[in-house]
């Protein structure tokens, strides 16, 4: 009897290990389509329309031994090493903060481009320098953290990202700088002793952080965006089109279920994203009729380094053919390509 109990106990431990132990790998698979009007509201905007604009997501989960083995048998599940998902220099918290920052920048660009295309003015405010991650062993380790916004250095207000570079350029190893920053909406101050930047080929003094500009945009009419649960930049194109659709009197959707993906860059161009094949599958499954895909160009240098690399649009077309969807795949290099396509589209 005791032997049977021991066998059951070992069996239970093995099952728990296979189901629960987290590996240093992630599984990517098709996500879902989400109506962008549920996330974006333009004050007094036109929302009474038959069609929809939808952003696409992929589902990402950390693998367990069981899900890892299962994913190997599935055509539309992709195994990814943890370093393909997360920068080796960042921890989980810093990864999440970077994703939210990418989403924040995506919203900024979407508002800017949409209002520009609608012929409306905006006001841009520089907020500070946003800390993306703090390098282990660097000068700011234990003092600053991801998500902090640096607003002053040695009493001088930081008015752009380059100013921070210039202020630190003349500093030497061992010099102290006073950093004023905002954390959790409260201003704080730390004195940082400059050290050599870890893992840098240049032997120079620095704060030991990676960072990006933090800007806000003021629009009239006001645009409210609620995207707390969405990270990354890939919804930028659809945010832009939805804002524009609410700003204009005409209905850009023409009654169709329209989906798409792509980073919205400040000049209106549409940037490459990851997982487009899974987004095409999810869009088809969720009943989308039109899908905008970034038509990015693969340079000769990139092709030489990654022979299998192809444009998002090429991958989207191949996937659409593979699953036999009737959904129309539309290539877009810029937001203007998407707008032009919608304007010539016959109402449903």
TrEMBL record:
<dbReference type="InterPro" id="IPR027065">
    <property type="entry name" value="Lon_Prtase"/>
</dbReference>
<comment type="similarity">
    <text>Belongs to the peptidase S16 family.</text>
</comment>
<feature type="domain" description="PDZ">
    <location>
        <begin position="99"/>
        <end position="185"/>
    </location>
</feature>
<feature type="domain" description="Lon proteolytic">
    <location>
        <begin position="228"/>
        <end position="345"/>
    </location>
</feature>
<protein>
    <recommendedName>
        <fullName>endopeptidase La</fullName>
        <ecNumber>3.4.21.53</ecNumber>
    </recommendedName>
</protein>
<dbReference type="InterPro" id="IPR001478">
    <property type="entry name" value="PDZ"/>
</dbReference>
<dbReference type="InterPro" id="IPR008269">
    <property type="entry name" value="Lon_proteolytic"/>
</dbReference>
<keyword id="KW-0645">Protease</keyword>
<dbReference type="InterPro" id="IPR014721">
    <property type="entry name" value="Ribsml_uS5_D2-typ_fold_subgr"/>
</dbReference>
<dbReference type="InterPro" id="IPR036034">
    <property type="entry name" value="PDZ_sf"/>
</dbReference>
<keyword id="KW-0378">Hydrolase</keyword>
<feature type="active site">
    <location>
        <position position="279"/>
    </location>
</feature>
<dbReference type="Pfam" id="PF05362">
    <property type="entry name" value="Lon_C"/>
</dbReference>
<dbReference type="Pfam" id="PF13180">
    <property type="entry name" value="PDZ_2"/>
</dbReference>
<dbReference type="InterPro" id="IPR020568">
    <property type="entry name" value="Ribosomal_Su5_D2-typ_SF"/>
</dbReference>
<feature type="active site">
    <location>
        <position position="234"/>
    </location>
</feature>
<keyword id="KW-0720">Serine protease</keyword>
């Amino acid at each position: 009897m005791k032997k049977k109990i021991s066998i059951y106990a070992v069996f239970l431990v093995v099952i728990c290990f296979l189901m629960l132990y987290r590996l240093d790998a992630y599984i990517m698979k098709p996500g879902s389509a989400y109506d962008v009007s549920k996330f974006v509201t333009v004050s007094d905007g036109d929302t009474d329309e038959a069609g929809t604009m939808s952003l696409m997501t992929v589902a990402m989960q950390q693998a367990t031994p069981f899900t890892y083995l299962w994913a190997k048998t599935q055509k539309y599940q992709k195994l990814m090493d943890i370093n393909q998902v997360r920068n080796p220099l960042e921890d989980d918290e810093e990864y999440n903060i970077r994703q939210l920052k990418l989403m924040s920048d995506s919203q900024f660009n979407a508002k800017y481009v949409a209002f520009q295309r609608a012929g409306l003015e905006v006001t841009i405010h520089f907020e500070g320098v946003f800390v993306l991650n703090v390098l282990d062993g660097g000068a700011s380790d234990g003092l600053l953290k991801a998500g902090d916004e640096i607003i002053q250095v040695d009493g001088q207000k930081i008015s752009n990202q380059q100013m921070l570079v210039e202020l630190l350029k003349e500093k030497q190893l061992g010099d102290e700088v006073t950093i004023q920053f905002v954390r959790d909406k409260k201003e704080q101050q730390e004195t940082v002793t400059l050290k050599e930047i870890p893992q840098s080929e240049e032997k120079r003094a620095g704060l030991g952080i990676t960072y990006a500009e933090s800007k806000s945009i003021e629009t009239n009419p006001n645009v409210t965006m609620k995207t707390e649960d969405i990270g990354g930049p890939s919804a930028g194109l659809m945010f832009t089109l939805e804002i524009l659709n609410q700003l204009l009197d005409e209905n850009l959707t023409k009654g169709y279920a329209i989906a798409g993906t792509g980073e919205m860059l400040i000049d209106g161009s549409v940037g490459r994203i990851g997982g487009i094949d899974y987004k095409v599958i999810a869009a088809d499954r969720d009943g989308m009729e039109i899908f905008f895909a970034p038509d990015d160009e693969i340079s000769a240098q990139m092709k030489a380094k990654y022979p299998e690399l192809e444009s998002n649009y090429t991958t989207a077309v191949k996937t659409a053919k593979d699953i036999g969807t009737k959904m129309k795949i539309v290539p877009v290099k810029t937001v203007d390509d998407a707008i032009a396509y919608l304007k010539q589209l016959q109402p449903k």
